[in-house]
């Protein structure tokens, strides 16, 4: 089941009689990066090994990220996002859970990445676009 939008939850909270009633209606559980990545693998019918390879990550390092044993830079998380074919919303959630800044359309590099995610570009094509605009590539 897809997670409700934050805006929708905020409206429900503000309309609620008490925080307790809101909490009872929505079992708010803090999900880990590892848990969310596994959920995305299942939803997109992907295998971890294929994603790690498509992301161009070292296998050991990639598995450690997926298992929650090691953190990763923002660009490594973006590599995974492109390898999984994530939507912008999914990508931003993965970034947030990884402790990185979400993509921000007022930042030129991020705007290019957002455009590429939305158009379904591969990581390689995205890197080419970033290079074309004199921005740092992801991988």
Task: Give a written overview of the molecule.
The chain is mainly α. It has 2 domains: 1-30, no CATH class; 31-132, 434 Repressor (Amino-terminal Domain) (Orthogonal Bundle). Helix content is 63%, strand content 0%. The protein contains 9 helices and no strands. The chain has helices spanning 6-15, 19-25, 33-44, 48-55, 59-66, 74-84, 88-97, 108-119, 123-132. Helix 4 (48-55) packs across helix 5 (59-66), helix 4 (48-55) crosses helix 6 and helix 8 (108-119) packs antiparallel against helix 9 (123-132). The model has no long low-confidence stretch (mean pLDDT 91).
Summarize the biggest pleated sheet: none
Please trace the helix and strand order, writing H or E for each element.
HHHHHHHHH
* Overall tally of domains: 2
Q: What integer is the average pLDDT?
A: 91
Count the beta strands. 0
And the CATH topology of the largest domain?
A: 434 Repressor (Amino-terminal Domain)
Evaluate the radius of gyration.
17 Å
The CATH C-level name of the largest domain is Mainly Alpha
- Helicity range of the residues? 55-70%
Strand content: under 5%
Shape: globular
Could you say what the CATH architecture of the largest domain is? Orthogonal Bundle
* Tally of individual helices: 9
Uncertain parts: none
């Amino acid at each position: 089941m897809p997670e409700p939008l934050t805006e929708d939850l905020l409206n429900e909270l503000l309309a609620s009689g008490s925080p307790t009633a809101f909490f009872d209606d929505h079992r708010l559980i803090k999900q880990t990066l590892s848990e969310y990545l596994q959920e995305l693998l299942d939803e997109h019918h992907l295998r971890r090994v294929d994603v790690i390879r498509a992301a161009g990550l070292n296998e050991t390092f990639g598995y450690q990220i997926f298992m929650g044993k090691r953190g990763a830079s923002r660009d490594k998380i973006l590599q995974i996002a492109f390898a999984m074919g994530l939507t912008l919303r999914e990508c931003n959630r993965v970034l947030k859970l990884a402790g990185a800044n979400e993509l921000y359309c007022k930042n030129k590099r991020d705007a290019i990445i957002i455009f590429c995610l939305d158009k379904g570009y591969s990581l390689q094509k995205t890197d080419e676009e970033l290079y074309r605009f004199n921005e740092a590539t992801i991988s």
